């Protein structure tokens, strides 16, 4: 179970969408979360990697080198 408070403007938009389509506000909130959760997970997992690269603890490999290593055309 999840309860969230939304800004009034967003709540009104969600209400209008739900009325126009005959679906519930919960349906649309759930859909939005499901569609964006993976993006948020990727972002938060990438931040520590970026910090390690910027600090010099990790390094990157140019794409053309990766492709050559795996026998792919570049």
Keywords:
74 residues, single chain, mainly alpha, 3 helices
Write up this protein.
The chain has helices at 8-21, 25-55, 63-69. It is elongated. It has one domain (8-69). The mean pLDDT is 94. It has 3 helices and no strands. By secondary structure, the chain is mainly alpha-helical.
Helix segment tally: 3
Domain count: 1
Radius of gyration: 21 Å
Number of strands: 0
Helix content: over 70%
Shape: elongated
Largest sheet: none
Which whole number gives the mean pLDDT? 94
**Distance between the terminal alpha carbons, to the nearest Å?**
49 Å
Strand content: under 5%
Order of helices and strands: HHH
> What structural class do the secondary elements suggest?
mainly alpha
Low-pLDDT parts are none
Structure in a nutshell:
This protein has 74 residues and is mostly helical.
Topology:
Elements: H1 8-21, H2 25-55, H3 63-69
